[in-house]
Design goal:
single chain, about 100 residues, alpha+beta, Conserved Hypothetical Protein Mth637, Chain: A, 2 helices, about 40% strand, globular
């Protein structure tokens, strides 16, 4: 299993490194033990966090309500929990 993805209690946990203010929203590969995601949204008023949740939900094919930000509200390093998706599917759909 990859370092940035953990499984437990019927949910997966993603460790992400976020680059807000990018030209487009995309997965950019690995960044240490995290998956790097570039976001087109600016890091103001929670816009980048909202864009991140929407992007992850869209990529994994789940509702936004199934994706929650657990830590890193004001940091580039974020931990996200996702319900109702398998670790194999998450790894395949995000890389």
């Amino acid at each position: 299993m990859v370092e940035w993805l953990r499984v437990g209690n019927g949910k997966i946990t993603l460790t992400l490194h976020i680059q807000p203010g990018a030209k487009k929203t995309e997965v950019a590969g690995l960044y240490g033990d995290a998956l790097k995601i570039r976001l087109a949204a600016p890091p103001v008023d929670g816009k980048a966090n909202a864009a991140l949740i929407a992007f992850v939900a869209d990529r994994l094919g789940v509702a936004r309500s199934a994706v929650s930000l657990k830590s890193g509200q004001t940091s580039r390093r974020k931990v996200i929990e996702v319900l109702a998706v398998s670790a194999d599917d998450a790894q395949r759909l995000l890389t």
